[in-house]
Amino acid sequence: MHNRWKFQPASEGGHDSASPYTPPPVRTAAGCLFELVETVVLTVVIFLVIQTLVAQPYKVEQHSMETTLLPDQYVLVDKLTPRFNAYARGDVIVFTPPAAYRGDGTPFIKRIIGLPGDRVDIHDGGVYIDDVRLAEPYVRADEPTEANGSTSSWVIGTGDLFVLGDNRENSSDSRVFGPVQRDSVVGRAWLRYWPLNAFGVLTHPSYPELTQHAAIVRARGETAGAAPHALAALPRAS
Questions:
Q1: Does any domain span residue 37?
Q2: Is 6 a catalytic residue?
Q3: List 64, 79, 171, 174, catalytic entry
Q4: Domain coverage including residue 124
Q5: Per-residue pLDDT tens over the stretch 22-62
Q6: pTM of this prediction?
Q7: Phi-psi region of 159 (alpha: psi -120 to 50; beta: other; left: phi over 0)
Q8: Choosing from 6, 19, 79, 110, which is the catalytic residue?
Q9: What φ, ψ does residue 42 adopt, rounded to 5°?
Q10: Residue 8, class by beta-carbon neighbours within 10 Å (0-12 exposed, 13-18 middle, 19+ buried)?
Q11: Which residues are registered as beta bridge partners of 133?
């Protein structure tokens, strides 16, 4: 009886001659170093893009925003949304101060109070926008707002912003150096993230008194505009 099974002898080394063993490539020290440098460079590029275009951390170094922000706290400044969502009254912003107040180059952080087209007046311990006194619950300990210097009234031009610190008695702001240019603004502070016990989103105040005033002015304008038409419809006396 013949054996039905035939055995193929193994090739030398115990591997099938049809599929020879291929050892994995050996990574050289130069290759490992190149991959490391590539990873570091890519990380730095991504970090710079985010910091330049999206958001940037800042350390508060001044007392001018107490008690909203305290010295040595860190905030995250939004650089992206102001490109399509304009700065608004009440926003806390980081900006480059005017040349005469740059000092050591530290950016300033203040709150926007006046917008282009506003007339800002400071008297009787308060801030007035177009003759309407602002309610400002964020001001430190209800401190009165006084004009610093001889100027107490400003008309805010196109591309400018009027800024004040929440700590009105200890703040160099637009009362001193006037309105700041929109182009000098770095971004909008929106998150206080360090220390952790102070973590939180910076709330945006509302100013219902200005909304009510605008509605009254608009209603008066509509009434004044309708009056001539009403008079024209009346019969003329001979």
A1: no
A2: no
A3: 64
A4: 55-217
A5: 666 666 777 677 677 767 666 665 555 555 556 799 999 98
A6: 0.74
A7: left
A8: 110
A9: -65, -40
A10: exposed
A11: 128
The token pair at 184 is: 């000098």
Residue in the block written with tokens 């177009």: 130
Q: Is 174 a catalytic residue?
A: no
Q: Please give, one letter per residue, the 3-state secondary structure of 144-209.
A: CCCCCCCCCEEECCCCEEEEECCCHHHCCCHHHHCCEEHHHEEEEEEEEEECHHHCEECCCCCCHH
Q: Is 96 within 8 Å of 121 (Cβ atoms)?
A: no
Instruction: Tokens for 91, please give them.
Output: 């926003």
CA angle 80, 162, 137 (to 5 degrees): 90
Identity of the highest mean pLDDT range in 13-17, 62-66, 223-227: 62-66
- One-letter identity of residue 197: N
What CATH number is associated with residue 118? 2.10.109.10
If one counts the domains in the chain, the total is: 1
